[in-house]
Design a protein that fits this description.
The chain is mainly alpha-helical. The protein has helices spanning about 1-25, 30-45, 50-75, 80-95, 95-110, 115-120, 135-185, 195-220, 225-235, 245-255, 285-310, 315-360; strands spanning about 260-265, 270-275. The model is unreliable at about 330-360 (pLDDT under 50).
């Protein structure tokens, strides 16, 4: 039964990835958008400019999808085909790889055509920067950085959590990541309220972001990149970024493409200056299709690891855990039997002594 469950989870991840690659995001009635509206309604009810309120909001908004996933998993524990179908739909829902690559290519076409208004109009599909004053190199840089970071957020991380925790992991991760996008940014309203959501998202992305960086280095030749340069830049620059995770992805992408990322970012109402990552020129339109190719190759590599995990490492972890629990559980009954034997022996000795005393009388 456990083997069938592991196989169902692996099959569901593969099928969901295929659905995302073929269909992309649902054009209407996207479940993530519906979750965002529900989370927004919850925020309006419990908002206070305090971290405790933000913690309650995060716990409720992430806990509900996780519990839904747990309930679905329990309902399908003896029905592997139904479980695989649910995991497939969940994976398709939370992935965003095809849309990410599509947006990168659309931006490349607009920049190659010299259509800056069209390119500026597309940037909000990728990130929250103010595009009004950005020229071609800055629009290209914003796109490369967004593709690098979102390859982790929208592809690798969901696959990792789906492999480790099945449907609850898929839904819980996407909920946390969506909350970070909604309230995790620095602003007067969310400076304290949004901190718990931001910290949870950082925690959940620690391992996936580093895996994304390593996979980007590994697949760099798929886009005519230099694996050695990507490795060198990733090791040197990955911790210079203010985010604990974004720099892992962006440094590796900068090295793979042979460009320099970072610099001054202007958002609506605020400005940030990021350290430079990588060597070489600023990105251009020609780099965007290569970035999309690397993103796709990283996604396929992550899928292979994620699909293998439930039937390899995940199964070994489960067997080891169950063996440890059985060993711990066996100690207590054994101790009880030993104590019972002692009591029985004591009773027999007392009875024998009583009979001996009676004979003496």
């Amino acid at each position: 039964m456990r083997q069938a469950t592991a196989m169902a989870n692996a099959a569901g991840l593969v099928a969901g990835y295929a659905l995302d690659s073929l269909l992309g995001d649902p054009q209407r009635w996207h479940p993530v958008a519906g979750f965002g509206r529900a989370a927004g309604a919850l925020e309006r009810r419990i908002y206070r400019p305090e971290r405790s309120a933000g913690a309650a909001f995060t716990a409720l908004a992430v806990g509900a999808p996780v519990l839904l996933g747990v309930a679905a998993g329990l309902a399908t524990r003896r029905h592997p085909v139904a479980r695989a179908a649910l995991v497939a739909v969940g994976t398709w829902t939370v992935l965003g790889g095809r849309t990410l690559r599509h947006e990168s290519r659309l931006m490349a076409r607009a920049l190659q055509a010299g259509d800056l208004p069209a390119a500026r109009g597309r940037l909000n599909h990728l990130c929250g920067r103010d595009p009004s004053a950005l020229d071609e190199p800055e629009l290209a840089r914003a796109t490369v950085e967004s593709v690098a970071e979102n390859t982790s957020d929208a592809v690798v991380a969901p696959l990792v959590w789906g492999a480790v925790a099945g449907l609850p992991g898929l839904l819980g991760y996407r909920a946390a990541n969506t909350l970070d996008a909604m309230v995790g940014h620095r602003s007067p309203r969310y400076a304290r309220f949004g901190t718990p959501a931001a910290r949870l998202d950082d925690l959940l992305n620690l391992a996936p972001a580093r895996l994304t960086g390593l996979l980007t280095v590994a697949v760099a030749p798929a886009a005519h990149g230099d694996r050695a340069a990507a490795w060198r830049v990733w090791r040197r620059d990955r911790n210079d970024h203010p985010s604990p995770n974004a720099g892992q992805c962006e440094a590796a992408m900068a090295g793979a493409l042979g460009v320099r990322l970072g610099g001054r970012n202007v958002y609506f109402g605020r400005e940030e200056t990021r350290p430079f990552l990588g060597d070489g020129p600023r990105p251009e339109a020609r780099h965007l299709k290569r970035a999309a190719r690397i993103s796709g190759a990283v996604g396929l590599a992550a899928l292979g690891l994620a699909a293998a995990y439930p039937v390899t490492v995940g199964r070994l972890v489960g067997v080891t855990g169950r063996a440890a629990l059985r060993a711990l559980g066996g100690t207590r009954p054994g101790s009880g039997r030993a104590a019972g034997s002692g009591r029985a022996a004591g009773s027999r000795r007392a009875a024998d002594s009583g009979r001996a005393a009676g004979s003496g009388r």
